[in-house]
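Input chain follows. Return structure tokens only.
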Amino acid sequence: MNPELMEQIDRIPMLPETVRKVEIVYNNPNSGVADMAVAIKDDPIVTAYILKAANSPLYGLSRTVTDVTQAISLLGKDTIRTFTVASAANSCMDIDLSPYGMTQNNYLARAQMQNALVSRWAGKVDRSLLKHLSLASFLLELGKVVISRYLIESGKSSLLHDVLNHGGSTSEAEVASCGSKSEDVTATIFYKWNFDPDLVHLIRFANEPEDASDSETQEMAKFLKVSKEAITLEGQMTDATLAIARSLIEEYGMDQNLFDESVAKILSAA
């Protein structure tokens, strides 16, 4: 990774105390809803974010969520932990994705839709997968925020534009313009924040599942790869993106019916 990009990562602050408290509760198998609520309750920014995210139609709740305890009960610790970290991460970084042609709303919509898709789909296969997949799917694009800032400050945004405009993939455009893929940048950020090495490893191979060193990471990374391809940079599912996703599902030997059921629920809610 080039030194200027690493300097951008070094400038990112550590996550706030609320995240540390939530991580302690999350990693304690004996903790419950009340413990998670106590860890969050004194942080009004995280609380507001959780309630807003929980009430998105993407998560399919049948009633409006009005307090954090209710949100934890209905959505579970995996999702609430994800919302907590996402709130903190997005608050500590200026989000300007203009080099990608994305708005902040595009970025947030894509993150939430990726998370909703992976949570519904992987949760039906094996709910224990969500320990890493929930957080990874929501914040997978975080590296794009850092790459964008680097490109804007160094005056190199046109390099990324040119590759994208000539039909290159997002990964190809990132490597051409800054030397690194956004997944590698995201993984480096999570390493800086002292998250589980298995989560860091998973994020790093989200675009090339077959290159991961162990079969468990390979299988989880396939969920991330498919969800990435299913959703545009603008945070939408289209016939074209879903066709690409289904071709990957066939290649990977995954259950297409479960994927299609999850997609149908998300599209009906969007």
